[in-house]
Amino acid sequence: MSSRKRGRAEMEASESSPELDLLYRIRSTWEFANLMQYIFFFGKAVKIDEDLTIEDLEIECVKPEPSQKLAEIGLALLKYVSWHRGLT
CA nearest 58: which of 24, 18, 13? Predict the structure, then answer.
């Protein structure tokens, strides 16, 4: 076993930030992948911005403050579902 101490750069590289942990957890869920796939296929019909990329969605999910973009996506999905079922 080596008795060498780790340098500062090695210590900082091995420490993970809360944002990276959250990003890893988001990327590991099937729900996130399913949401992005749904937006990719049906975003135009649901009236969600076509320029939305998976990186944009990840950034919006990791933000600590409430996201206006996520609220818009949720509202667009809710409007489509309620309109489709005849609810207003």
Answer: 24
